[in-house]
Amino acid sequence: MVMTPALAETLAMVSEAASCARNPWWIIGSAAVVLHGRSIDQVKDVDLVMSAPDGEEFLKRVGERPQSGKPNDRFRSLVFGTWTKPPIPVEVMAGFSVATPDGWRDVALSTREEVTVQGQRVYVPSVDELIRLLRTFGRAKDHSRADLLQD
Predict the structure, then answer these.
(1) What InterPro entries does its record include (predicted)?
(2) Which of 11, 79, 103, 142 could bond to 137 as cystine, CB 3.0-4.6 Å?
(3) Which fold has domain 5-150?
(4) How far apart are alpha carbons 29 and 15 in whole angstroms?
(5) SS3 track for 83-107
(6) For the purposes of burial, counting CB atoms within 10 Å of the CB of 149, is it exposed (0-12), middle (13-18) or buried (19 or more)?
(7) Is 115 left (phi over 0), alpha (psi -120 to 50) or beta?
């Protein structure tokens, strides 16, 4: 697995901070691609998807507050915040939805694979589900990440 020390430390910190979550949670985006063993030029942030109650509790636990503001035209979360203490910022997306041609769709992941990083467990969707999710996001960078997973 190609992983920088900063990403490994960040993921271990996420695992520890999310250990009290009542519902399943996942790492998605570029960090998930790396956790599936692919190489990415740079992981600029770690995307953590969790339930809204768990997201609120997570942010409180790490000393951050949910951010207020309007969702963008592609993504929205019931609870959103950024944890800035880890080496790589962690974006908490709780109650996460994505805009599709048919309207807003809740991101409801059904697969959950465990990966151990620095002795801590983190969770990612299966490769197939992550590919579908990235393609749903529709951005060029997400399509590129999905292509990496298909190789």
Answers:
(1) NT_sf
(2) 142
(3) Beta Polymerase; domain 2 (3.30.460)
(4) 16
(5) ECCCCCCEEEEEEEEEEECCEEEEC
(6) middle
(7) beta
Binned at pLDDT 50, 70 and 90, residue 69 comes out as low
Q: What are phi and psi of 94, to 5 degrees?
A: -115, 130
Would you state the structure tokens that stand for residue 136, as one six-digit string? 């749903």
Distance of CA 142 to the CA centre of its chain: 13
> What six digits make up the tokens of 114?
């465990």
The tens digit of pLDDT for each residue in 10-64 reads 999 999 999 999 999 999 999 999 999 999 988 999 999 999 999 999 999 999 9
pTM surpassing 0.90?
yes
Question: Rounded distance, CA 17 to CA 103, Å?
Answer: 33
DSSP state of 19: T
